[in-house]
Design a protein that fits this description.
By secondary structure, the protein is mainly α. The chain has one domain. Helix content is 82%, strand content 0%. The protein has eight helices and no strands. Helix 1 packs antiparallel against helix 2 and helix 5 packs antiparallel against helix 6. The longest helix has 31 residues. It is globular, with a radius of gyration of 19 Å. The two termini are 16 Å apart.
Length: 203
């Protein structure tokens, strides 16, 4: 329903501005991304509020989103499907962080080391992962995106070390966001996402 309304709006405005079909398609895709992303953030806040994990959920979300901007990852066909996964995953990561941070704090150096080693391995082997809507064809662009991804991981590692004693719940949530984003780079995750798309398409 919402996609149809957005499509009608772009078609109407595009006709007034004398835009061709290609430009209207790009505008429609961009508008859908903005609208669904905004709705997704609101839903994350609402769900995480009910679960008592707002700060942790957003720490995981922001960390993963920053990395995803440059590394890509498993991608659903359509913003509604992406939003539904986002609204389930990040409140859940927030809740996990809130509930295990006290007991996991004693092992913080081990968990930090394992998560960041896994992230480095994942980004080294697979990043950046493109999608049909935004294919990466330039080898220089791939190197640049990978370099930025590694730089962000290094910054997150430094922040984790500096703040883990005082804000470990938030630090752990951010690390779980990194772990999630790392997992989305693997071919198995991409296959699972494609299967999820197919199941929803059938329904």
């Amino acid at each position: 329903m919402l996609e149809q309304l957005l499509n009608k709006f772009i078609t109407s405005q595009g006709s007034k501005l004398e835009m061709d079909e290609e430009k209207m398609a790009v505008a429609n895709y961009g508008l859908q991304i903005i609208v669904y992303s905004t709705i997704g953030v609101i839903l994350i806040f609402f769900i995480a509020s009910l679960l008592g994990a707002v700060m942790a959920a957003f720490a995981a979300f922001i960390t993963a989103a920053l990395l995803r901007t440059f590394s890509g990852g498993a991608h659903c066909k359509g913003p509604l499907k992406c939003m539904s996964i986002t609204c389930m995953v990040f409140p859940l990561l927030g809740v996990i962080s809130v509930n295990i941070s006290a007991s996991a704090a004693a092992y913080s150096y081990y968990t930090t080391g394992i998560i960041f080693l896994f992230a480095l391995l994942s980004f080294y082997k697979f990043a950046p992962v493109d999608c049909a809507n935004k294919p990466i064809t330039c080898s220089l662009q791939k190197k640049q995106l990978r370099l930025v991804s590694f730089s962000l991981i290094s910054i997150f590692l430094l922040l984790s070390i500096v703040f883990q004693y005082r804000y470990y719940e938030i630090v752990l949530a951010g690390q779980l966001g990194i772990l999630w984003q790392s997992l989305t780079l693997w071919p198995l995750s991409i296959k699972i996402t494609q299967r999820y798309d197919q199941l929803l398409a059938k329904n």
